[in-house]
Each structure stands twice: as C-alpha cells, then as structure tokens.
Amino acid sequence: MGFWSQVGDPGEPKRKYRWLAYIGDMQPWICKKVTKPEWEITESVHQYLNHEFYYPGRTKWSTVTVTMADPATPDLAQTFYNNLTRAGYHPPEDMNDTTTMSKAGAVNQAGRIRIVQLGSSDVDPGGGGGGAFGGAVLAGDTIIEEWHLYNAWVKKVTLGELDYSSDDMVEISVEFRYDYAKLNARNGDNPYGNEASQVVAKTNFT
What we know:
single chain
C-alpha cells in the first residue's frame, strides 16, 4: 500500500495547490504561482597533483518569483510603480532632485513576505459524521511549512502582455531578492505573527 493511501502518519504528500503567499499588505488571493526559496553553497577547490579536494564556501539564496493576477482594484501595476518611487527612484525631470534608491526604502516598500504551505484538514475520529472516515472534519487546513524572507526587495517587475486574441487575465510577475530565508515549520519561530490564522483555523506552531 502506498504512503498516500494511509490514514494518519505518514499521511499524504504535500500538494502544489495548497498554499498562501503574504506579500506586504496585499491580499493572498491575487497570487497565482510562487517559487519557493532555493539555496546553493559555493565551493573552493584545492588541487594536489592529479587530485582535487572540495570545500564548502558561502551560502547563496536564489530569488523568489511571484506571479499575480492584476485586478483593476487594487491596481497592482500602480501599486508597484508607487513602491518604486517611494523606495527612492524618481524620473529624471528635475535636475536638482538627487534622490536615489536605498535598501531600507526598498525593503520597507516590499513589506513582509511569507509563503505558507498547507496540509489537509484534520479529522477528529471521535467527532462522528462529517469526515471521510466517520470523524468530524476540523475547520481549516494545517500549516505544514512556512517560509519567511528577510530584507526582501523587488528586483524585477514584469507587467505581462496585451493580446487581442486572448481573453486571459493580465498577470504580473514580481522577482524578489532577499538576504536569507528561514523555514519555520514546527519550530515556533514566527517573527511576523500569524496572519494565516485569519484564513487557517489550526496550525502546527502551537
């Protein structure tokens, strides 16, 4: 019997569609796709005769890209452009304006970024009735993985394309650069609070 058909531990696998992304003050429903954090360890090599010996170096974090639907209200294109100017970029219209972008400004405009992965709803075996196996289904899905991006700022914004032959929604792709990320699943380390509690009734962080 495969692990995905068992009840309880080990339970079912993580699913791609069970997630929420919190980007600053934006509502999570606008996010359609997100890449999870990735890291790479650089290496240095020591050569001796015809041998090579490798040593781990620095840890590098890859950028995270979020694909969003662009609603008219709130207007995301306008929102990200406003964030750009508030972070310090001003069009070259005034020769006396020497404002430049700062990291503090860019990080402040990006806001807090969290990626939450959800598991399946818990079933209370003694509840009777509603569950697939006779138990009562508890409200909400369980948070099984939660990433926090630290000092994140917007590196690239792609506003999509327009096409007379398509009736698809306009999408915006935003690439975030950050200093490092932390995985908080099950360790209680939650520096930003738990906004997900408004959507998810039960978590594993308690």
